[in-house]
Amino acid sequence: MIDIKNPLGVHALVWVGGTTPQDIGEAVDKTKAAGFDLLELSLHDAVDLDTADARRRLSEAGLAVSASRGLTLDADISSEDTAIVTRGEELLYESLKLVDELGGQILTGALYSAFGKASAPLTAGGRRNIVSVLRTFAKEASHRRMTLGLEVCNRYETNVINTAADALRLADDIGEDNVVIHLDSYHMNIEEADLVRPVRLLGDRLGYVHIGENHRGYIGSGHLDFGAFFHALADIDYAGPITFESFSSAVVSPGLSNDLAIWRNLWDDGVDLATHALRYISDGIHAAQHR
Ligand code: MN
After folding, report:
1. What does pTM read for this prediction?
2. Ligand 1 center from residue 245 Cα (angstroms)
């Protein structure tokens, strides 16, 4: 990870939907040109990912990298079906290996369940499976000097953790120091009372942040109170990555776009979207240091 306060990142789906060397090359070049410090790759559709090639391109551009993902319905550690849990566990270890090969130190997202609307609450047995798998998995990540993020997602994407308070309880049960909480303003808008209290509740347990508008489109065009969010991050002296996440039907990743219900065109010009977002976030973070 780049040794600076609040490395600012961008999700690759702002640029490209695929992970071929050509796609990664384009994502790296555009991330660098826009002025970001970090590129976040989704591992959902990473079948074409050449990690050695990507690592070389990232390193030449001087960019840090992180990766995110959710699990899948047939590979889900929140299940009570042993075969499905085992496949979920395998998917996690494969993902960790990819991030390590990329030279990244953070794997985050819905590492605890499949993306998608659950039709019933999480069961006690399913929760025990999550805790057991993630405790062992966190130890493996620790051996590789890597950090795991638990992204707090809204009720339509998971039944495991919908609020910062849920995430703290889960992280406490896992009980490993390299498991941090990941907040996303888009999900917070749906589930939390506001954008301030969850940040204060987490304090130094907050380890990763996604910035997204209420509709996941052009930042500043929606109704989220980013001023209050940036104040809260400054109040807890948050120093971790802040990554801009936005999705439009203009750039499609076959698996992830469908999992996230990206049906609408919210922007066409990823370059304008991302350069504006970097200015917006960087100005907001800077202003929040002043009282
Ligand atoms: Mn997110």
Report:
1. 0.97
2. 6
